[in-house]
Structures are given as structure tokens and as C-alpha cells.
Amino acid sequence: MRSLWREILLETLLGYVSWSLCHGLAPMIYYFPLQTLELTGLEGFGIAFLSPIFLTINPFWKLVNKKWMLALLRIITVGSIASFQAPNAKIRLVVLALGVSSSLIVQAVTWWTGSGLQRYLRTWGFISGQIFLVVLRIWYTSLNPIWSYQMSNKVILTLSTIATLDRISTDGDCSKPEGKKTSQVAKGMTCRPHWLLAGAAFGSLVFLTHWIFGEVSLVSRWAVSGHPHPGPDPNPFGGAVLLSLVSGLMLPTCTWFPGTSLIWWVTGAASAAGLLYLPTWAAAVSGCVLALFAVSMWPLVLGHLISSGSSPGKTMTIAMIFYLLDIFFCAWCTAFKFVPGGVYARERSDVLLGTVMLIIGLNMLFSPKKSLHFLLQTKNSPKVLFRKSERYMKLFLWLLVGVGLLGLGLRNKAYERNLGKRAPATEVSAAIWPLRFGYDNEGWTSLERSAQLLNQTGADFITILESDASKPFMGNNDLTMWLGEKLGFYTDFGPSARDHTWGIMVLSRYPIVRSEHHLLPSPEGEIAPAIILTVTIPDKLVDFVVTHFGNYEDDLDRKLQAIAISKLLKSSSNQVIFLGYITSAPGSRDYQQLIEHGNVKDIDSTDQDRWCEYIMYRGLIRLGYARISHAELSDSEIQMAKFRIPDDPINYRDNQKVVTDHRVVPEKIHFSPRFGSYKEGHNYENNHHFHMSTPKYFL
User: Fold this and answer.
1) How far apart are CA 189 and CA 375, in angstroms?
2) Other beta carbons less than 10 A from residue 487's beta carbon
3) CB neighbour list of residue 223: distance below 8 Å, 6 or more residues apart
4) What angle do CA 530, 536, 539 make, to 5 degrees?
5) The overall pTM is greater than 0.70
6) Per-residue pLDDT reduced to its tens digit, 16-46
7) DSSP tag of 596
8) Which long-range contacts (CB under 8 A, 24 or more apart) does 603-610 make?
9) Residue 521 preceded by cis peptide, ω within 30
10) Which of 125, 290, 457, 685 sits at 20 to 30 Å (Cα–Cα) from 572?
């Protein structure tokens, strides 16, 4: 056996690639219905996960066990990383789906064939690949580098190609796994796990790991609440999640660990319920316990999977059917308004999580209580090699923990240095923008360009709608953490990721002293979120109310949501700024509800060419108003307004005169010249420019 360190590193890298392909396909499928707000038929590419079904055909199984065919499948798998370089989203989807299909077949062949020690290292490489994935995401601030940056994609493609060529050179004809001793075979035949249950448990565990532990910040976003007690911040609390994940992998090696007992399953089920229902820190601690439980199941579930006695094709197909059903149901829980049968899945994450935990529990309680290395040990792979491999793998995993914690510490220190660098001022600028979950209109990640655009606006307070990309079908990305650290802003995110909204992110140059997260009345359509915040700018408190209403078709929802927001506005302090996406025209019923009953003024009541985005205010002096074209970075423009905070919020005079010549107003209230000058009508050019008869200034 060659160097164990070499084997562990190579198998971990290939395991990371397998996980990344799995994580990458769902967001690419979801991108297309996101454009049309309805199913497109491209969801059918999810069938790529069912490629193991071909292994149930005996001639095909014999074919993929030949060295040249396995080599070809390995090359296709690693080559699909280059899908990130594709010229358009459809080609990328096709290549990525092909890579996922090949990856699953390679897993089935290599996990079921070869020597016991080879199979042990391959399966543990898959497990450690998940830990490597979350550590890399720490260093890239929640993003998976393989799908985020051209350079990192090329580097990972190169390293993975080297690892793949090495595996090809060591692959033999994988006809049959190495045989066990006669006594072990006789004993194993009587206590094999059922292939159906083993497959269902594996698919459910893959989904659970992807859903909640695909990135270490996700637990914090499930547990988040309003300021001043928002719960644990993703950084540094993500370190606790990482420690829980790796500690969970250590538990099965402890002789005292009751890993297959009813008590341990009840502990896991209770922690899942706690994460789903408990507030802030209690939910976060529950999430850490669930991490311990989930990853402690990996060696057991993988052992049951590959020792079930059935054909790999049947077992892996069942596993991927359960994974697909889980991920589609997860999407249906939030996108219920736009999919068939959505009414039955609406906000039913409890059913999804409960079902996943039940399947894992049944497999745990009613399958053999044998360890992974015992199930794979053969007459030619003595115990000493397994024990040595186990020690090396433990050390490697703790090294990954150290690297991850270092990344969190460095990021946290840099973030604290960048906070609050803006000089105190009596003027404040506010902006609203729907981000579309960090993907541009062509299906590529848009965060770097979005950060550059937001920085160029010079806005002090920004509300970003459609910002909850923590869901597995959107990439498990924490956009709030990424933009907050990139721009050096204080942040708020809400409502929590478990509340089935599309999310609201708040970025503020000034400290947030209070916030409340609200779910607005939504009896018919998608769940509408809102946040009310108090920000100190500086030594003066200004309230902000931000919201995202439901669809125009849901008239009752919009009516009830407008009433709820008007009450929040009316109860706010004398100085308040409203930034909302209200899917109603100027002068409409909902618009009038906010103006009249919320006691606020429109930043520009003469602008009749608006539909969704509105800026309103009370107790402030308006200085300027601008609309900046999206240039295909999103499907919606940025709206901005500038205000002066009066010394006396009761006795002051608002500006009434409207001018479009920036030369007649003080330079300090000019909007950024980066976006050109005053422009009438739409800006159809592919650049960010003022348009729609803005910018306007008020005197």
C-alpha cells in the first residue's frame, strides 16, 4: 500500500469534487424557473442523479467495471468542473448533469469493488471531502470556490485532474471485491441490512448534510432573530458547527458511544426539532447537537449501504430517489406558489425534516451494529492497516478544523477593522435592490460585481431583497455575511432561513441598535417578510421599515400586507425611511394605504413609472432621488434616496423644489458620477446608468 497520507489527500479531493457536483446541479436547474416563475421542463435534468439505475443492467455493470470504461467515467466527472467555463447556462447545465451522472456511477463501482482497505479509504474520502468543502467555504466567505471564481475553478480542475490520473493508474479491473474470510461471510449473510432501507438512509443523510451542514453559517441563519439579541453570528459561531461536525466523526470510534441506540436517535430527533422551533441560541445549540448526530451516522450508513448484499445499482438508485424527492420537496416548501401541488408542501419543512430523521433512525435501529472498517476488513487487509488509516484520517480531519478556525479568525479580525469607517454626517442615503439570490440574468454568480456596484452607489443603508440563498437548491450561500464582510457594513438578515421566505438582507454603515423580523399575512401566496430597524446615525435614531410583498395576483395578500406595514410605519419613531417592494402601481389601493395610514410621504410622487420598488419617509428632509439600471446583473433596478436628518424632527421644512441640474446643489449631496448624469426613459445599454428621469434633487 502506498503512502496513506497520499491516499487520504487524493480521495478527499475527489470526495470534495463529488460533493461539489452534487451541490452545483440543483442551483443550475433552479435558475431557469427563477427566470420565468414557472416550471420550464429543464427540471428533468434532475434525472442525472438516477444514473446508477443503469448498473442494474448486468452487461452495463460488467462494462463499467472494465478499467478503460472506469477511466473514461472518471475523466468525464472531473471534466465537468469545467462547466463553469461554459459559454451559457444551458451548456453548463448539460455538462454538469453529465458529471453528476458519471460521479455516481464511479462511486458505485469503487465503493463496491477493490480491496477492503481501498474501499475504506474511498468511502472515508467521501466523508472527509464534505469537511474539506465547508473549510474551503470558510476561506471563501461562504462560497464554494469551484463555482464562484474562474481562477479557483481552474486550480481545482487542475488538481482534480492530477488526482484522477493517479486513480486511473492504480485502478485495476474491478470485477469483484476482495473476499472475506469464510467465517465472516457466513456470519455476514445472516445480518445484512436491507438494501431498500440502506439506500433510503444514505439518500436521506446526503440530503440532511447538504441542507443544513453544506456551509457552517447555515445553523446561525436558521436560528437568527432581531437585534439586540439576534442569536449567534455566523462568524465566529461557524467554528462551533465545524467542531461539531468533526467531533461527530470521532464518536463512532469511541467504545462507550451508543451510536445505534434508541437514546442516540431520540437525541438527534430532539435536536432537529429544537433547530426548527426553538429561538436563537437554543436553536443554534440544537443545530450543533444535530451536527454531531448526523455526521456520527456517516460511517454506519455507508457501511450498511455497501454491505447490503444487493446490486450497487439498486441500492444507489433508491438512495438518489430519496435524495431527489427531498430536495424537490424542500424547494416546494418555499416556492409553493409557482409549482403544481405546492399547496400541500407549503411551509412543511417540519414534515421533511421529520421524515429524514425517521428514515435514518429506522436504518440505525434495525440494521446490523457493525463498524465500517469491520464490514470492509478482509483476509488480505489486516486490522493494523485499518487502525493506522483511522489514526491518519482523524489527524487529517483535526488539521482541517485548525485550518477552518484560522480562516474564521482572520476573517473576523478583518471585518471588525472595516466596520464603521464612514465619517459622522447629518445626511443619510438609502437604497433598495432585489439581488435575485446572487445570480445574474445569465445564470452566473454576481456577488463580486454586485459588491462593486453597491460600493459605487455610496449608500449608507441598503436593503437587499431575494437574498436568502442558504437553501440547497440555491447553493447554500450566506450572501449577507459575504456582502457585509466585503463592504464593511453592519448586517441584519431575516426572517430566519426556516421561515420559508425569499429573505431580506440589511447592510448599514451605522450600528443597528434594534430590529424586529415579521412574517406578513399571506393567506394565499408566497410568504412576505418585513424587518423594522432602528439605526444610530450618529447620535440620532432613525427607523427603517423594509419589506417584500407577495405577488400581484394575490390581491388579498397585498391588501393585508399593506395594512400590516402601515401599522408598523405608524408605530415607528418620528423619523422613518420605508424601502419596499410592494407589487402595486403608484396611486393604487396598497400605495394609498401606506401613504395615508402609515403617515409617510413618497420620495417622488410625480414618478408614475414604477411598479415594485418604493421609497417613502417621514420626519426627514429629502435631498435627492435616483434610479440606476440593473444592466442584467439582476432583473430590477436600484433605487436610491438621500435625506438630511433635521435637528428638530417636529419643526422643520421639507424640500419642495425639484431640479435635475446637479450644479445647483451642494457637491456633498451629489449622487455618484460613476452612473452618468440625468437621463430620461429606460437605459437599455448594458451598463449601470441613471435612468427614468433621474437623478433628481430637492431644494
Assistant:
1) 12
2) 17
3) 231, 232, 275, 278, 279, 280, 281, 282, 283, 284, 287, 496
4) 160
5) yes
6) 999 999 999 999 999 999 888 888 889 999 9
7) I
8) 603/641, 604/658, 604/696, 606/658, 607/692, 607/693, 609/692, 610/585, 610/586
9) no
10) 457
